[in-house]
Write a structure and sequence with these properties.
alpha/beta; Rossmann fold; 2 domains; five-stranded parallel β-sheet; about 45% helix
Length: about 270
């Protein structure tokens, strides 16, 4: 029996009611909304909701506007978009507004349920990770002083730990540390950094990075636009000077690489 509360938003009554019943049969608590205005009023009132399943084609305030407003009212809310009119532009905009997933109608109930469960589990892991980060910060200064006395290590790999230069990824704890300081990354940013570090000093194309970090295929143009957004955000968190990156370098016309040795800037 699930305890999570799901808000289902669709202006088509039949689809809204059907999906709500499917979720109730799975044990979820469900609230239904038929418009963007109703959705925002419910969220603004405090819900509380664990996830929103949102149709993009809504009268009045459309789905993308609702998504942006949700992130303002309830940052980090799990939002799954469903649409029958997908475009590269709307997919990119959805990613920019931190949508968890983007499903095409008619999406099978099994796909919706799996996507929802994976998203809720990921949110749970992220909350646990943030608790670990808070604890880790207490010991960050001690870790930094130890690392300063160590020689610069070559890339080191084992099942859980990946280290290149002064950046460490702990896969088991879903943590990233630079110079002894924990860095707060989203799950997508974490996977993207992991992909780059696994092949440090090798150029990877935008399509390869989308496949590695997000698990799906897209065309060259779409991949370039999607990855550019995530690279910019990742640089802002791990680069000492994001406008003059030291770690994540752009190889024009080819892709991106993590530079483990050079002090160059681009």
């Amino acid at each position: 029996m699930h305890q999570e509360h799901i808000l289902v938003v669709d202006d088509e009554a039949a689809e809204r009611i059907t999906l709500g019943e499917i979720l109730r049969l799975e044990g979820y608590q469900v609230t239904l909304a038929a418009s963007g205005e109703e959705t925002l009023a419910l969220i603004d009132a405090g819900g509380p909701f664990n996830a929103v399943i949102l149709d993009l084609q809504l009268p009045g305030i459309d789905g993308l506007q609702v998504l942006a407003a949700i992130q303002e009212i309830a940052p980090g809310m799990l939002v799954i978009l469903i649409t029958g009119y997908a475009t590269v532009e709307t997919a990119i905009q959805a990613l920019r507004e931190d949508a968890y997933h983007y499903l095409l109608k008619p999406a099978p109930p099994e796909q919706i349920l799996i996507t929802l469960r994976e998203g809720l589990d990921q949110v749970g892991r992220e909350q646990h990770r943030q608790m670990l980060v808070a604890k880790l910060k207490k010991n960050a200064q001690e870790l930094a002083s130890i690392e300063k006395n160590l020689p610069e290590p070559p890339p080191v790999r084992d099942d859980d730990l990946l280290q290149v230069d002064n950046i460490i990824i702990d896969r088991a704890k879903h943590l990233v540390v630079r110079d002894g300081e924990p860095i707060d990354l989203t799950p997508t940013e974490f996977r993207l950094l992991e992909c780059l570090l696994e092949d440090a000093d090798q150029v990877r194309s935008p399509q390869e990075l989308v496949r590695c970090a997000q698990g799906y295929e897209t065309d060259t143009r779409g991949a370039r636009s999607i990855i550019r957004v995530h690279i910019r955000r990742l640089r802002s968190k791990i680069e000492p000077a994001p406008s003059r990156p030291r770690y994540i370098l752009n190889v024009r016309g080819v892709g991106y690489m993590f530079d483990s040795t050079s002090e160059r800037v681009t």
